[in-house]
């Protein structure tokens, strides 16, 4: 049975302030919970149906709460709740920026929407980009919507919230720093390296000036036919998918 | 003022059955409404604040309903309502399938999520793919969430709901039919044509057998490093973005 205090904890994990205070976050569904249990993220509680528990073996340190499907449905943040909810410990990560000298990394400048953030983490996982630097204004990766959108990739990808302008300034003469701009160069005509940082900008305003001034490689994702007048733009997660694919193709 | 009957109409346009009966759909926000007013889709009602109306000139045949911002907020399906709602006439489109002999087209096999469908239409617009064939099981493009996700692209892209297996069977010996499969060929090593059909499959099950048997070019979007074991997959709209980008790059 889900006690009142656990139900209250689950509900409150929708708020960033509470998440920060208790250092916990919530993940739902077999795929996400399973991937997190297989990662180095530590689990505190598993709330699951007896069917789910019967088919999974869990480490002893996890507190297990057996619950009826209807109880889990009431506690869930999802529209189509599944038979399991996990409460996990946040990682408080710092990434050594010099990693960008040997690996390709992403940097996110004020990505606002948790769904976009989670989708970007999932794309990074697909393309083997393990490290993401986030500006302080970027959405919290432990927001339940962001966690959900990563589809378990959050267990494999490392995010570090930091001052992005300062980070880029320190790195700018040592590694290539890429960003997309409407007046950038056609990315298909540029040589793209296997290391460095790709900066992706805010949904409405793109890359802010404080970051933009440190970008050495200004790229453009061409539409088709190239130069066709369009009032359209690409959503930031679409743009990330296309640009990461091109880096990895090259 | 928004009358009770108009409010009822707006609310009911959330239901596919009602939309089909009255042949109408709803779009919200300046960008979407503006793009639709500039398309060949006919508008029936514009419900807007006096500020919005003061800065727009509308054709005479549109019935204009001036409303307070709070009224529009109450009527809106959006979390952050904007100052304008439009009610438009659906297009009932048929596309001649032979168009795929000269142009690149998409075919969607039971895409369930309206948000994914709308995002795919937006991607198609960016890459100059004007015609999309949809299976009967694909979400309704006039669902408010789908319309919203197209960000106005719905006015420029043509969708035709039809029996996809039958369509592909008719076309299969005449044009290349592409689809993505986990055991397909690396798409970066294939020659991709400027005409034909790219089939995208259902979120959970991929491309159904009835469509799959007519696909002549089985493609795979490689992850990175190629062959790295991964439990991940790509969301269907991400996969569409990456594959369309590669067709257009080539």
Structure description:
The structure is a homodimer of 250-residue chains. By secondary structure, chain A is α/β, with parallel strands linked by helices. Chain A folds into two domains: 4-89, 2-Layer Sandwich (60s Ribosomal Protein L30, Chain: A), CATH 3.30.1330.30; 97-249, SPOUT methyltransferase, trefoil knot domain (Alpha/beta knot). Chain A has a six-stranded parallel β-sheet, with helices on one face. In chain A, strands 1-4-2-3 form a four-stranded mixed β-sheet. Chain A is built from ten helices and ten strands. The relative contact order of chain A is 0.15. The first copy, chain A, is elongated and about 60 Å long. In chain A, helix 6 (114-126) runs parallel beside helix 7 and helix 6 (114-126) runs parallel beside helix 10 (236-249). Chain A is 33% helix and 22% strand. The mean pLDDT of chain A is 90. Chain A has helices at residues 4-12, 16-22, 30-37, 50-54, 69-75, 114-126, 144-150, 164-171, 209-212, 236-249, and strands at 24-28, 43-48, 63-66, 84-89, 104-108, 131-135, 158-162, 177-186, 196-200, 217-220. In chain A, helix 4 (50-54) links the parallel strand 2 (43-48) and strand 3 (63-66). The A-B interface holds A 35, 119, 122-123, 125-128, 151-153, 188, 221-225, 228, 230-235, 237-238, 241-242, 245-246, 248-249 and B 35, 119, 122-123, 125-128, 151-153, 188, 221-225, 228, 230-235, 237-238, 241-242, 245-246, 248-249.
